[in-house]
Amino acid sequence: MPVTLKRYRALRPVEYPTDQAVIRKIRNGEAVSYALRKNKRVKAGDVVTDIPNPALLIEKGWIEEVKNDDEKGGDA
Amino acid sequence: MAVRGSDQADLFVIGGYDILGTLTQLTDKIEAMTEEVTVLGSSWAEHGYTGLRHWTMSQNGFYNDAALSAHAALSTGPGAGPRVLVYGVEGNVSGEAFIGVQGAVQVNYETIITRGEFHKANAEYQANGVVEEGRIIRPLSGAVATGNTTNGAIDFTASSTGGGAAYFVITSLPAATATGLQLDLMHSPDNLTFTSYVGASPVTSSAPNSSWAQRVNSTAPVQRYVGARWTAGTGFPSTATFFVGFSTQR
Questions:
Q1: Average pLDDT in the A39-48 region?
Q2: What is the pTM of this model?
């Protein structure tokens, strides 16, 4: 059964790591160098599926969830 | 909190001039402006705080006429407009405290020539605007490539609804890098996803000017983790030297 990833639209430019091992290390309080973070840069309006902590970022007004009947924005 | 020594006074930049290496003494003074409010029948004089504070600073040091040194920084200061001033006495280290002055008005420049001694160069400043304590987000040092400090973001332990002020200070910018060095203060609620909080105006001159030392404030809420980001288009890998600090308004 295919897994459908939730999609989120950036409401402002953001950058974040996408490597799960890196995200785990940062959450554990470990220092991860800029080179290893390999932050992904996203423009306002881009739609992504890999952003960490989406619920928190929705609360902050940095992203919004994209519903199926709400198609617009760029690619992930 | 700890006792500090002169070896930790490791940051002093006025208007983009890093003249720490010429200084021997700094005197920073904040005074409350008061008015005598004694009325008849009093046996002791009384004074009330008017709500105004007054900042002054004096610096003593050696005369040095090298490029970007004390004489270049100070000789045209009296009568010129206010400049952003930052200094730190707890080390030029991420997370340590610094003092930021929104507008330091240089009121004099004194050179002292004495037989058998090195020449001295002294100056005094008064504030035009805010004097505030903040934390060093990116210490004064060189960079040879676009980068950021999200790997070592400073944890302010909580978000601030009162906003804050960022200090962006450049002390060296080779012509090759002066194609538009852009400094940004980044913030994040989770130390993972960052966005720009405020940014400095891009700097395109390889000679010191007002764009080399900028204070940019915002009243928007600032998130818990704060870092810095720098980009310079095709300018890198020439070394640029700069500092980023941040003061929260809680």
A1: 95
A2: 0.91
